[in-house]
Amino acid sequence: MSDPSSVSRRRFLQTGALVTTAAAAGLTPIAALAAPAVRRPRSLKALGHDLNGRLILPGEQGFAMAAWPNNARWAEKQPLAIAMCRDDEDVKRCIAWVRQEGVPFLIRSGGHNYAGFSTTDGLLIDVKAMNRVEMVDLKNGRVTVKGGASNQDVATALRLKRDTAHYAVPSGRCPTVGTSGLVLGGGWGFSATKSGLTCDSLLATDIVLASGHQITIDANHDPELFWAVRGGGGGNFGVHTSFTFKLHEVPDTVTTFNLVFKPEKQIELMTALQTLQLANAQTISTRSKVRPLMAGANPGRDQLVVETLGLYWGNETALREILAGLYAVAKPSVEDIYEMEYWRARDYLLTDDPVGMYQIKSSYVEKTLSEKALDRMLTWMTEWPGGSLRQDNMGILFAIGGAVQKVSPGATAYVHRNSNYIYEMEASWGPIDNPSVVAKQREWLANYYNDMQQFVQPESYVNFPDRDLKDWAKAYYGCNLRRLSGVKRTYDPSNLFSFAQSIPQHADAPGPCI
Ligand SMILES: Cc1cc2nc3c(=O)[nH]c(=O)nc-3n(C[C@H](O)[C@H](O)[C@H](O)COP(=O)(O)OP(=O)(O)OC[C@H]3O[C@@H](n4cnc5c(N)ncnc54)[C@H](O)[C@@H]3O)c2cc1C
User: CB–CB of 503/483 below 8 Å?
Assistant: First the structure.
């Protein structure tokens, strides 16, 4: 009787030889793997046969939709096939298959990775259909969700039952962002300053490792890996099939606000917004930005408006007292302030689900963006080279102090615990913009980002990844990088989980964090 493991090994080695030959010939491995038309469909067919979910091949019903990433910039890249997993067994089968066949692969949950790290020309292992909220254990204050659950899946499951509606998991703004990607990279949301990041509420997670084994990890079981997955970023150590979170009790009512000011006094307004945020570090959460009124190149400063969207964990009267300093600078021309039930407030704060083509860069602001820094930011905005879209996200400050800073930088892999803001810079374009327009926008973004580095920490948020970021591993992980590399060597010794910015197995970096 033949030994199945030796067959697997032989196939793996054959494929490895193919990949090496391809590399020598200057081909990408996948191009080489695509070449022998006889072998590829047969093994894919076997995988499809084994799955409880569905293997979708190019041209088959649903392929285009399943392949489409949130950032359409990466949509031209077509997977060899998409494995829509139905359960944990499917995930294990996929991992066994990619190991055996040596085929490149990436994992996808919500598909919102900015830099295309869930878009591949190999096998796309998609867990989106595994989206059940499995268990709400109010006695122990925890909820378990499957790896494909989105922000909205989790919120809806808690909200719609009378006994669970008083509890929430801190999550992000976008309903369709996957819990997987969100929590593995950290997880900012309007609850972060009060209740911490999404990863700070993670109690346990099930993960299928490169070895094919599935384990449950928590503070007592494989604690090093559990440390690493709280901020180490998606796609690095295995495929997560479920997450258990601590539940946070929410008040009956909170107050939301959206304020838009006339296009003047931008520096004073952004300064006042930062002041009020820091003075109320845990009770308020602001996402403040400056944006042009219209699309078009070189908007003047008289075209740039300040806007803030936020959540206050108190009533309207108390919020209005906090806003007094801001209103002393200027009264908003749009003022929406609503005291309302917690879940309605969450709906109000949701972002729509933008799809487009974009590049995003992020930095961390230790204390505040100074007046000088804000002045530079405005100058860069006026140098926008133009394109078809209005640029709503040229410069945003997401408050990320408060409870996030109560955890030390080395306690989890999410290292950015000494900052008050994530600072996002973005360029976005549409299909009508030709390549030279896009090139100018990206050059503008690079120059703007580089110039602003004098005012910010040399750090970047791994959930806002950027392929052009130099020294990305240090920027994402800082003094946690060396320790993360050690975890990578232990749990993924063959570097199976590998992509352009996956955690390196060796890092010449200072650390560990103290
Ligand atoms: C419109 C929009 C709004 C956003 N809003 C916020 C926000 O409010 N707060 C915030 O912090 N971030 C926000 N983000 C960023 C978001 O958190 C990250 O893009 C996140 O990684 C997306 O997770 P995903 O599962 O949707 O994406 P995916 O692209 O599916 O996955 C992201 C990464 O995780 C890996 N991965 C996915 N599933 C698994 C799994 N089961 N096991 C292991 N690895 C996996 C992927 O391979 C990829 O590397 C937003 C992004 C967008 C596009």
Answer: no
